[in-house]
Every structure is written in structure tokens, then in C-alpha cells.
Amino acid sequence: MASLLRTLTAAILMLHLATSTVLAASSSGTVAYAASGCDYFIVEASGGDYALLEWYGGSVPSTGDRVVGPFESYGFTDIINPNSGQSTRVWVEDYWLSRSSVVSKYTSKCGRPPVRQSAASSGTSASPAAPAHVIQSNIAGEFTGWEGETIFALDNGQVWQQATYAYRYHYAYRPRVTIVPTPQGHVMQVDGVDAMIFVRRIR
């Protein structure tokens, strides 16, 4: 029994030392956006910049969680939620990013933009991930997909045109549209369509 107690005490001390070391040499931040269906999530650091992390194991982060850990350097690391004491194994994809850059990188990795959720639909405060220049509107009228140089008129008065060749048929009436700026151009996602295309604004 005494031997077991000594072993448990040693294990607890080692865990405490490891946690203290991580906390001492770490950055702190808040999970700005995390969603099911993609292992990547966005952390807003205390300095106002953003990091894009990929979940590899442990506790699954949620939007609004406070996290501490060395996530401002590349590679594998562990971050800790100081409120729950739970740890998460992550891959640091990139860090010290601007708001628009982290949105572009998340969109590229996950195939969809980090869309701000309304408090009415989610029951929680809105996610701060999507910047103001991410455009969200609806197709004005019927939508039947795209086929080459398709033109998309939006309810907000903007008109966009397909910029890369692709064909996709999907019928919907006034579907929700999200257009995200990326370093390669604007990417458009239409609700209910499992693909995205590059578009350019023509009005």
C-alpha cells in the first residue's frame, strides 16, 4: 500500500511539474471558432493575432474555451484548458495570423468558411471568427448550380461571376451564400452544395 501511494504521489507531482512547465512557457488565448466535421480550429491569442490548430487527440475544443500552451510555434504540442484542466494534442498549422488570413486558411483546410452563428440559432454568443469582409447574402431567386461563366445575383445587390470552369447542378430557391476572400481570389460557398468555386465581382 505504501509503495502504491508513493507511486501515485510521484505521478501526481510529475503531472503537476509538466503542467506548470507548459503554462510557464506558453501563450494564452480563446478558441474563436471550432465546428464539427473539421479537425482544424481557430484560436485568438491574447495579443489579438490568430493561430490555426489541428486537433490530434485529447479533449475536443469548443468555441469560447480558454486555452494555454506553446501554440505560437510550428509542430506538435499540447494545449491545456485551465478551467477544466483537460489537455489537447494539436498540430500548429500556422500562427501570428491576421483575421482575414486565418479565415482563408481555415476555409482552404476545411472546405467551408468559419461562418458566424447567430445567438438566436445557437443559443450562445456569436463566433468572432469571420471578419466583416466575408460576404453573406442569398441568391436572388432560383439557383441551379454553375456551368462555366455563371452569373450570381445576390439579394444585397452585388453580382458575381464564376471565375473557374466547373459544372455542378443543384436546385434551390434563394439559398444562403458565403463569399470569402483568399490569397488566390474569392471563394463562394452555397448552402446545400458540397463544393465551392472561385468567383469575381462584376457589380
Q: What distinguishing features does this structure have?
A:
203 residues; alpha+beta; 6-stranded antiparallel beta sheet; 3 helices; 19% helix; elongated
Structural class: alpha+beta
Quaternary arrangement of the chains shown?
A: single chain
**Mean pLDDT over the residues:** 80
Strand % is 35-45%
Describe the structure.
With about 200 residues, the chain is of the alpha+beta class. The protein folds into 2 domains: about 25-110; about 130-200, no CATH class. It is about 20% helix and about 40% strand. It has helices at about 1-25, 100-110, 120; strands at about 25-35, 40-45, 50-60, 65-70, 75-80, 85-95, 135-140, 140-145, 150-155, 160, 170-175, 175-180, 185-190, 195-200. The strands form 3 sheets. Strands 4-1-2-3-6-5 form a 6-stranded antiparallel beta sheet. A 6-stranded antiparallel beta sheet has the order 7-12-13-14-10-9, covered by helices on one side. Strands 8-11 form a two-stranded antiparallel ribbon. It is elongated and about 70 Å long.
Tell me the layout of helices and strands.
Elements: H1 2-24, E1 27-33, E2 40-45, E3 50-58, E4 66-69, E5 75-80, E6 87-97, H2 99-110, H3 119-122, E7 135-138, E8 142-143, E9 151-153, E10 159-162, E11 172-173, E12 176-182, E13 185-190, E14 196-201
Short précis:
This protein is of the alpha+beta class. 19% of the residues lie in helices and 38% in strands.
